[in-house]
Amino acid sequence: MELTDVITTEDEETFLRLAGSIEAASEHPIARAVALGAEEREVTLERPTGFVNHTGRGVQGTVDGHDVVVGRHTLLTDLGLTVDISLVATAADLEQEGKTVFSVGWDGSARGVIAVADTVRPTARDTIRHLKQLGTRVAMITGDNQTTADPIGTLLG
User: Fold this and answer.
1) Cα–Cα distance between 104 and 70 in angstroms, integer?
2) pLDDT digits (tens, 9 = 90+) for 99-137
3) How buried is residue 145: exposed, middle or buried, by Cβ count under 10 Å (0-12/13-18/19+)?
4) Which domains does the chain have, with CATH numbers?
5) Spatial distance between the Cα atoms of 38 and 42, rounded to a whole number of angstroms
């Protein structure tokens, strides 16, 4: 997994510092990808306080006095944050590309979205092509949903 997209109405460094700091407190592999992506962009992450894991929906905590929420846009709205419909549309577009997308908000409103995607090993496509040439039936088994899996399947052949 790697952080692929950062779309925000705020300063990108601030956005990644707040989102990455919350995600760094989580043990989930996708959250780790967000935190690592922020660090790779040389953003300094901080230790949040009041960290809460909303299982299957997202996480929240406080960073620099900001109540930060990272997760599904429905989590943000359920917690009382305002989510602009354009962010929901942007998230849907990124999901159609097979990416996993999270909304990020603080202090009462959504500020943007972040997306992560599976990384494909450089040799994977050639390996699959070779297996098919040998007559092997190739199938992909994934825990992802169809929208996420289809672009990877297409990429790999």
Assistant:
1) 5
2) 999 999 999 999 999 999 987 788 888 888 888 889 999
3) exposed
4) 2-117 (3.40.1110.10), 124-156 (no CATH)
5) 7
Amino acid, single-letter form, for residue 124: A
Q: In which band, very low, low, confident or very high, does the pLDDT at 86 lie, cut at 50, 70 and 90?
A: very high
Say how many C-beta atoms besides its own lie within 10 A of residue 35's C-beta: 21
Task: Give, in order, the Cα–Cα distances in Å from 51 to each of 61, 73, 99.
Answer: 4, 18, 25
Question: Is the full-model pTM beyond 0.90?
Answer: no
Nearest to 70 by CA among 119, 8, 11: 8
CA distance 118 to 130: 22
Query: For 1-29, what is each residue's pLDDT tens digit?
Result: 999 999 999 999 999 999 999 999 999 99
Q: Are 83 and 74 spatial neighbours (Cβ–Cβ below 8 Å)? A: no
* Number of alpha carbons in the 13 Å side-chain half-sphere of residue 97: 14
Amino acid at 2: E
Q: Which helix (H) or strand (E) holds 115?
A: strand 109-117
